[in-house]
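Researcher: I'm preparing a figure for a lab meeting and need a structural model of a single chain. I don't have an experimental structure, so a prediction will have to do for now. The sequence is pasted below. Please return the structure as tokens so I can convert it later.
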Amino acid sequence: MTNCWRALVVFLGLLTLPACGQDTSVPEMVSPAYRQMLRTLYRETVPTIQAAALADMLRDKPKKVLVLDTRTHAEYKVSHLTGARFVDFDSFEKNEFKGLPRDQTVVVYCSVGYRSERVGERLKALGFRDVRNLYGGIFQWVNEGRPVYNAAGPTRQIHPYSALWSVWLRQGQQVY
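Model: Understood. Here is the structure written out token by token.
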């Protein structure tokens, strides 16, 4: 094996190691391909939270967690997690997030967790103490059979972001 190949093997192996504070438990229903794709996208700068753990928090202590949907307005209108506040990804860098308590648990999400991780980084830089990124985003949430809502109430509709990303959404009705 050449030195280049060895370096590549070591690098790929390092990609599988968790960062400090990361929730490394991945549900069995996460496909290996999806898991690898997320590993490639995430910078691991914001700790992740699994869908089941967030569902438990929302059930047991709904006032203790603030959920922020960091997708586009069109995506949010199709469906979102119950009680989620909309934070426009296209303008989050200018947002000071005034009026949000810095000591409350904040969970950010988007389609798969890439955009929400950027927003989570901003929140941490602004002094938010407990920021988490929903592992796998709303896609993982829906793929695990968890409910989403729109202005009319519960829905099976989900915005897949793009045709490229839609392959990771296995449940629900895709609506652009």
